Amino acid sequence: MGGGAFSDVAGSAASSNKLINLLRGWPNTSLLPINLLDRASHNVLSNRGKAFPAMEYGPDPGDPKLRKSLAAWLTRFYEPVAAIPEARITITGGASQNLACLLQVYTDPVYTRNVWIVAPSYMLAFRIFDDSGFHQKLRAVPEDDEGLDIEFLKREIRKSEENALKSGNDEPRLKPRRAWGKIYKHIIYAVPTFSNPSFKTMTLKRREELVRVARDYDALVITDDVYDFLQWPASLTAQKLSLDKAILPRLVDIDRYLDGGTDREGADGFGNAASNGSFSKICGPGLRTGWVEGTQQFAHGVSQTGSSRSGGAPSHLTATFVAETVASGELQSYVYDVLQPAYGKRYQKMVAAINQNLVPLGVKVPQTDRDVVGGYFIWLTLPKPLKGAVVTQRAKDDENLIVAQGEIFEVPGDTEFAHFESDLRVCFAWEEEDALAEGIQRLGRVIRSLQDEDGMDSVPAMQPAASGEGAKDFW
User: What region holds the Aminotransferase class I/classII large domain (predicted)?
Assistant: First the structure.
C-alpha cells in the first residue's frame, strides 16, 4: 500500500544539506516501467477490438485476460499444491481499496468482535478500519522472532469470544444475510512477508498456526502480500539478486491445503484467508490496480461489492494495460531482471551503511539470520534511552533527513503490549541510490550526538558476518 501525502514532509529550513527522505515508501521514478506500459497501452488503444471493451464498464470480477495470466504467474511463482484457477482471483483497485471492500462484504461493525492487527503495522490501514466502524475494536498483536505472537492472539481472542457470549452478540446486526457473502466473527490483518514496517517475515510454522486459529474462531486473515515479488538473497556479497520462486507459501495457500483445506468437512466454502495483491510495488502505484485471491466463493463475494456491481471492476482500463504486460511475460521479466537486482543492490548499500554507522552505536535490526530478504523497508531499534520522536526531529532539524518514528505504526488505542517509541523505519526504495548510505551516515551522526549529550557509551562494534551462505549481514 502506498504512502500518499503522509510522506510529503518538509525538510529543514536551517540545514544546508540536501533533503534525504527515508520515510517515503514509493518506488524511485527510475524504476517505473514507463516504456513497458507505453507499449501495453498502445496495444490496447490501437486495437478497437481491445479498446472498446477496455473503455466500457468491465465485468464484476475484472478483466478476464488479466485474471487468467495473473493466475498462471502466481502458480509459477508460489508453486501451490494445485494450479491457481482464475476463479480464485478478482481484480481490485489496489490493496487499500480492496481492504475496504473486504470489510464491506465480510464484516459487521457490531457482530464482528475485533480487528486484530499485527503490530507494528502499516499505519494508513487504520483509517480504512475506522471508516468501517471498527475504531473502538482495533487490537494490537505484538510480534516475536517468528512473526505474530500466536499465544497472545489465542489468549486475547478467547477473551473476546467470552465477552461476545456474555453480551448476546450472536448474529450480525447491521448487515443482511447474502448468499454470496458471509460475516466473519474476527478480522486478522498482517503483512507476513517482508513486512511494512517491521521488516520481518512470518515463519511457515507460525503461518500454519495462524490459519488454525482463524478456523477455530471464524476469523478472516487478510494479508497484504504486496512485497512478495521483491526478494533477493540476504548476503551483502551476493552477485545474483534475483529469485523467481516464493520463499514461503502465502496464508491463502496454506488455508487451501492444511488439514483438508477449504473443502474439509464442515467448512462453508469461503475459507479463512485472503491474499491482497497489488501492482503498485512491481509496476506503478498510479495504476491503482491489484487483485485479491481466496476461494472461488470468496473471490466471487468480493466482486459483488456494491461499488463493483454499480460500475464493474475498478481500474478496468489500466487493468487491460497490465494484462498485456503479464500475458506477454514482460512484467515478469521486468520484476526479475530489473526490480529485484535494483532493490537488492539498494538494500546492500543501506545495510552496509547500517553495519558501519549504526550497529556500533547499539542499533538493532530484526531477524538477522534470514537467507532471503526483500520489500522496501528496514526496522531499527534504538539503544536505550533514545526515543524515536527525538531522533527523527533532530535528524530533520540538524541533518535535513526524514525518517519514520516507530510510534506512528502503533495500533490506535491499544499500545499496552505493542509500543514502539524506541524504533525507526527507513526506506531504501524512494531516494536515489547514492543518497541511501549518506542518509544512514547522517542518522548515525544524530544518534552519536544524542548519546554524547546523554553521557551514553556506545556499544562496542560487532564484526559483520563473513559473506556467503547463511551470512548474518547485520552482525
Answer: 54-443
